[in-house]
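Before the break, one more example. Copy the sequence into your notebook; we will annotate it together after we see the structure.
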Amino acid sequence: AYIRRLIAATLKPDEMKDLAGQLTYNCKLGADGSNLDIKGQGNIKGLVLESARADWGDVSFVHGIELDTKADLLKISQMQLSSPALNVKLVPPNTITDLGGEKVMDIKGEFNGSWPRLIKLAQKFVPALKKDLALDLQGEMAANTGLNTCEFTLTGPANNPKLNPKFKSMKTQTAFGWESGEMLGLKLGGAKFVPDMKDGRLTFGKPKIPASGGMVNIDGSIDFMPDGMVYNLPGRHILIDNVMINPEVGELLLSR
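Here is what the structure looks like once it is written out:
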């Protein structure tokens, strides 16, 4: 029952029909009383999401998890995903307690990725990124963070029935950046974002992004409310300061 619940939470039958690729997977199961140990590794050669015509390339993964059905506890000793666009790795120890209830997270890990590859894939799912925003980023996600990879943490209950949304008391922190880019006709310099979510509010660390001789100043927060997300920008704020205007910026940005 626990295995069925884990699979159902990640892959639904109607979603799996859209995937194509050659899967190779090896798994070793061990059981001792209420404990179930699951270790495995595999790869998917030529993973494609057919509806979006998105080619993820060759993807490999490794996992090591232990389920304690009596304690309602999941321990993750190893979890790693590698692909040409994105690499994610959990750094042990990692646990999820109260699996059948609030699903209390204590997760930490690291990730990195190639912005050109990620943007190319994202444009398949959201064509407006290319058509309307003219978005193009260069470098790796760890650029300007001072680290070789981007670190992240995820702590607290993801399913508290007394709150709305139920993940409101969950906390998460990370950092990422890029080397350069373009958006709405603006030439962007290097940037660093520091997303931090707590009490249902997501902030980004007030990054200042060099843009076409001036600066783009990001501020405000995204509040997760019972009826959806709300972007809040307190007080007067200069978003775009002293940037150079050209016909492309005028068409993509100022004409909106």
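The helical segments are 2-10, 13-16, 115-125, 128-131, 247-254. The first helix runs from residue 2 to 10. Try to locate both features in your own notes.
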